[in-house]
């Protein structure tokens, strides 16, 4: 049982970024390191669950949210582990801590939103429905504006044709009334019966009737055709509007967020806003709990031993460096001394040989007839000089 407990402690120490060989020699700090490791383990579980919940709100795939949630949990634990390890070794980077605080705050804001959406789901749905209805009406107006020019032109053409037909009908009705009043003596010449005037008015009436029928036969098909085009436009608007409504029956993440923002604006008491900020603060504290615990405990004993080991390794490395450099310097000096001695000996022993060779060349030069001073000098430099 004790061996099992030791294994668990070692896992927690390693999770928190403490070196097992050092922390196990620290009686108090080893206990603190176990607490920090436990908190970091809980932070990892929380992060994985929170991010899984978030990804469930944006995708219907059952596997991707779990994979993404585990990845984010692993990332957050790894980052906190690196920070705790740096703080434990005494090399705390304030920029890293500041970045972690900023990250925790942003993640708290990011994760608080889907949680608030879930907590206030009935209110969010009601507000989302209101927003959807508004968007539907806006979409309908947009469609009407898109087809307004064509529809107005068709309506104007129909109105013009109907006005022409209406004017013809008015003339016909007037001629008919004039003929009838002439026949019954109530109008016109006040003479009753089918006389010359009534015959003339009948002729005029028949002319208007014939013109009306011709005009009606010509214009009514055109009016009917224009009305069909108007009906087609209205049908098209209605279909596109219905398709838009059908595509927005489900409340997506964006419309829910918009509904939440609308509720926050309408919330005069401020209770919803206060709960939202409080949830953000709580989520950020949960993420920072392991770092807060590390700052509270300090683990000075572990830090002191870790610093001692680090300094010892640095000192040993510096000593090794000095020894190697000293060896190289001594090797250089001895090599230089040895080669200089050889050079001196070479030139000392070669001195007599050079003189004898010079004597031989001078003798040949005295006996020779074709050689010049230049030839002698070139021969001498080739045999006796190392470099010209």
Task: Outline the structure in words.
There is one protein chain. By secondary structure, the chain is mostly helical. The chain has three domains: 2-92 and 268-298, no CATH class; 137-254; 308-384. The protein has twelve helices and no strands. The protein has helices at residues 2-15, 20-23, 27-56, 64-88, 94-119, 121-146, 148-184, 196-247, 253-266, 271-297, 300-367, 373-384. Helix 5 packs antiparallel against helix 10, helix 6 (121-146) crosses helix 9 (253-266) and helix 7 runs antiparallel to helix 8. The longest helix has 68 residues, at 300-367. The chain is elongated, with a radius of gyration of 53 Å. The model has no long low-confidence stretch (mean pLDDT 78).
What's the layout of helices and strands?
Layout: H1 2-15, H2 20-23, H3 27-56, H4 64-88, H5 94-119, H6 121-146, H7 148-184, H8 196-247, H9 253-266, H10 271-297, H11 300-367, H12 373-384
In short:
With 388 residues, the chain is mainly α. 86% of the residues lie in helices and 0% in strands.
Shape field? elongated
Instruction: Enumerate how many helices there are, as a single number.
Output: 12
Estimate nothing, just give the exact number of structural domains: 3
Average pLDDT rating: 78
Low-confidence stretches: none
Structural class by SSE content? mainly alpha
Largest sheet report: none
Q: Roughly how many Å is the radius of gyration?
A: 53 Å
- Report how far the terminal alpha carbons are from each other: 89 Å
Task: Estimate percent helicity.
Answer: over 70%
What series of H and E elements makes up the topology? HHHHHHHHHHHH
Per DSSP, what share of the residues sits in E-state strands of 2 or more residues? under 5%
The counted number of beta strands is 0
